[in-house]
């Protein structure tokens, strides 16, 4: 199912076949998996509705393909290699057999608490093996998991629980991150006070010796219901189009939406892309530094690597603890072969100097990955030179929560790499650029809006509970195409460089954030009349958050700024903290009352002298004072 491509020429050939006969192409990939009942139909689609069904009469369970299948042939091989936050604590190895047994025990525990196929379960946990076990246990019994990044606030957690109408939350007592201990159960308790009426059980994994508040009505210890369970659990037969998980992500308007992925297509695509993009070989140790709270962790810490029978590492900590050499120390210690991280981490480590990677033996690295935001040329070259020593091709992988898997990326050692270019679409992915009227730009050397014009197996099926939103956001902007929200350039040879979002989504340290979401949080402060949030270039984070705020008679001092920041932390979490806050008397608006973000973005970027024509604004006079007060 993989490694059929050995050169750029072969890539072009395979790509051509995949476009000419897509159903044949994907059928061949899908047949390499274990199906409880094989599929007879490959694809049924209509982007207008949208409705996309892959392998629709097939029946499977993804955990059988992640675990049972490998237990038969390589049961003793390490499936998950866990590196704890504390470097003095021992790493742990979970073999495929041990992982399957742990997943079955947890699955049986969930069943005892009444969780069944179709129920939603929220996970709010640190990067410990129990998180992987819980995710897979849900999939084992057909419960729909929704992992919420454990940095989100009680309010944000509650919003997601309520939207998903989840019947269970699985959390830990505390999380360890660097030198910090985070009282996770307390956050869950607060979320329960705010809402979460659908929740019947809070399942708590003990991760410390600390005492926690306990409510006998809902709280249950993991060890009380999981340990002692049978180590076998029949995998629930799932239709290929049954939901596997919901993952909340930000859009340009409103609250985060629940992106829905289904069992069959997601399985086929994450495995296929993992094998090809990372060129994993038996015996390799693969490490993706993402958190399982994001799509990268779902597809490329858990599902993709486990489906491929790989050894995948899970790291509990942060790159800066105990010092800026931690990533490289881990690469040396575990002889990591494929390393996958985000540009923001690379830039932060680069800022600490070349001596850190130089201290460690990084000679096992064969492939370096980048994901989540555009990688700038300087970071690309540093990564190549100081981490890969010029020997490990960089795969700049472009994709989204909605795409489920990597859609554009070099194939290491096969297609070439070019700094800042995600390069060629994967075989089977019909990526196109269009102009603002939706006309396809077929020439090379053009810039346009990135769309995908044909289904791929792991694409978004709906936004949970609101199909119309899915249609509006992704499928109605350009008729007959999936619109990514990104702008891109194609070079003279057909390589694609993704420039960034063209909508009101900003990308802060690789975390996706809707400007409207941050504004709504700021507006919760009783002394804020109106706010506007834009991204601005930030040396480490890629983009920083710049907030313009109209206040209601508060003195405009640091104390007020602090209050605004804590309001945002309360509503969303620390990842959404504004980096800069400017108090303004007015916001530039169009005659129809829409905030002119283009102008605010330029001012925030220090480009206030180049605003173009502002005479059509409703209130052109405010622009001068906004410019004068700019924090640049
Ligand atoms: C951006 C993360 C440039 C892009 C997997 C996309 C990138 C958004 C790249 C999705 C890349 C991701 N080059 N930009 N290699 N990878 N992006 O849903 O703007 O958290 O739309 O998924 O990140 O973010 P998400």
Can you describe this structure?
With 632 residues, the protein is of the alpha/beta class. It is built from 19 helices and 30 strands. A seven-stranded mixed sheet has the order 5-4-17-16-18-19-20, sandwiched between helices. Strands 7-6-8-11-12 form a five-stranded parallel sheet, sandwiched between helices. It has a four-stranded antiparallel sheet with strand order 21-22-24-25. β26 and β27 form a beta hairpin. α1 (8-20) crosses α2 (22-30), α3 (62-74) crosses α10 and α12 crosses α14. The chain starts with 7 loop residues before the first helix and ends with a helix. The relative contact order is 0.10. The mean pLDDT is 96. The structure holds 5'-O-[(S)-ethoxy(hydroxy)phosphoryl]adenosine. 5'-O-[(S)-ethoxy(hydroxy)phosphoryl]adenosine binds next to α10, β20, β24 and β25.
What is shown here, in short?
The chain has 632 residues and is of the alpha/beta class. The protein is 32% helix and 23% strand. The chain has 19 helices and 30 strands.
Structural shape = globular
List segments where confidence is low: pLDDT < 50 over at least 5 consecutive residues.
none
Largest sheet: 7 strands, mixed
Could you tell me the mean pLDDT? 96
Distance between the termini: 52 Å
The oligomeric state of the chains shown is single chain
Strand content: 15-25%
- The strand line-up of the biggest sheet is 5-4-17-16-18-19-20
Count of helical regions: 19
Bound molecules: 5'-O-[(S)-ethoxy(hydroxy)phosphoryl]adenosine
**CA gyration radius, whole angstroms:** 24 Å
| Count of β-strands | 30
Helix content: 25-40%
Q: What structural class do the secondary elements suggest?
A: alpha/beta
